[in-house]
Amino acid sequence: MKFNTVTIKDIAKALGLSTSTVSRALRGGYEISEETKKIVLEYAEKINYRPNPIALSLKERRSHSIGVVVSEIANNFFSQAINGVESVAYNRDYHVIITQSHERFDREVMNVEHLASRSVDGLLISLSSESSDISYLKSLHDKGLPMVFFDRITEEIHTHRVIADNLKGSFEATEYLISLGHKRIAHITNASHLSITRERLEGYKAALQRYQLPFNEDYVKHGKSQGIEQEEIDQAIRELFELPEPPEAIFIAQDKLSLFCLMAIKKLAPAHLEDIAIAGFTNANVVDLFSPSITAVRQPAFDMGKTATELLLQLIESKRPVEEFQTKVFNTELIFTNSHRISG
């Protein structure tokens, strides 16, 4: 059964008016009498008339919609960031179209091209683990499509960026593990080319250096470019605990990795459950229920999504070309757990 929407022509036919008269009355045109406006508006309300968004977008050359491209909505950080996006967009009468790349470059390209073909007014993007080539985004940006990057960003496109202070957050997490008395600290992280991976590895290294602890490549495990799977983390945990000197603590660089890491330890290194200390980036609201527990590095995801949207709408609604761009950096917060305070 085909869904038929009510059009201006339907209203005009029902009221015995011309379509141009109905259109002007709905817009509040000064050339239409108050009596006619009243008749048209009351009838439109009675039949629940809504303007056709496609027709409006063709007329105004704007769709009043923005596209959001993230790796995975199930990721706690992204779900909270999207809430921030929507809190701004809907209050400004913009629709939000959310897509997931599932850490795949081809899926990301397909999503972006679909959104662009639907004439979204702008894009909010957090790159997938596979996205080392962003020439397709450069092409769209050069053609005038506004875009703002958040969390996983690129320096290759001159636009606004919204990030957390990844270096500081990872430094503080690693420093905390050192304060518990641990000297052998492993680091499990994502694809090496991602901006968040580089910054969090840098913070980890800086903390080791500050406390004169050696950096050991054997303690660092990168995820594959196509995204992290449980089997991959299982292998990483197996390799770490088969080392002659296995780690005493682990710093984890991403939300999804934290859960996979806990599951792997329980399965493959249960003897270490009581003494291993873990800190990592996670925005999970139930982090206190994790076992072994995690000292969490939490990002202000809602505020990051909100700010990214405000910056994007500034680009969209600017009457003149924007030439100065900002990189907004948000502080992270270290959330402690009691069990870690006695680990050392």
Automatic annotation (TrEMBL):
Species the sequence originates in: Pararcticibacter amylolyticus
Protein name: LacI family transcriptional regulator
Record keywords, A-Z: DNA-binding, Transcription, Transcription regulation
Cross-referenced Gene3D superfamilies: 3.40.50.2300, lambda repressor-like DNA-binding domains
Lineage: Bacteria, Pseudomonadati, Bacteroidota, Sphingobacteriia, Sphingobacteriales
GO molecular function: DNA-binding transcription factor activity; transcription cis-regulatory region binding
Ranges for domain HTH lacI-type: 6-60
PANTHER family hit by this protein: HTH-TYPE TRANSCRIPTIONAL REGULATOR GALS, LACI-RELATED TRANSCRIPTIONAL REPRESSOR
